[in-house]
Design goal:
Blueprint: E1 5-9, E2 21-26, E3 34-37, H1 43-48, E4 55-59, H2 63-67, H3 71-74, E5 82-89, E6 92-95, E7 104-105
Antiparallel strand pairs: 1-4, 2-3, 2-5, 5-6, 5-7
Length: 106
């Protein structure tokens, strides 16, 4: 699965959309937090992002692409929940939601 478009909003994003690294963290796979980096931004995502207005557009990657786990192994899970954070490059800083539930995708 994958392909759903999400918008991440917040202050302090890099003005160049591709310099904002989107991270997905879950504990559903092993019981401990594992963080995966999103694939590089597409031209469409860069175009749809409005970082000057605090908006970053991303398309959720397929789970097997994001995690590197074969689709067959992922089929044993009924639900996976990921918390999203953004790492900016200048300054290098991780941005997380103050209310963590607002940054979850399922």
């Amino acid at each position: 699965m994958g392909g759903s478009q999400i918008y991440i909003t917040g202050a302090g994003l890099d003005m160049e959309p591709s310099l904002n690294d989107v991270m997905y963290t879950t504990s559903d796979l092993t019981g401990e937090d594992i963080t995966f980096a999103a694939p590089p931004m597409s031209e469409d995502e860069e175009f749809l992002s409005g970082v000057s207005m605090g908006k970053l557009s991303r398309i959720l990657p397929p789970l097997e692409v994001l995690t590197g786990i074969p689709k067959e192994q992922l089929q044993s899970f009924t639900t996976l929940i990921f918390e999203i954070s953004v790492i900016t490059s200048d300054p290098a800083e991780e941005h997380v939601c103050k209310e963590r539930w607002r940054c979850r995708v399922q």
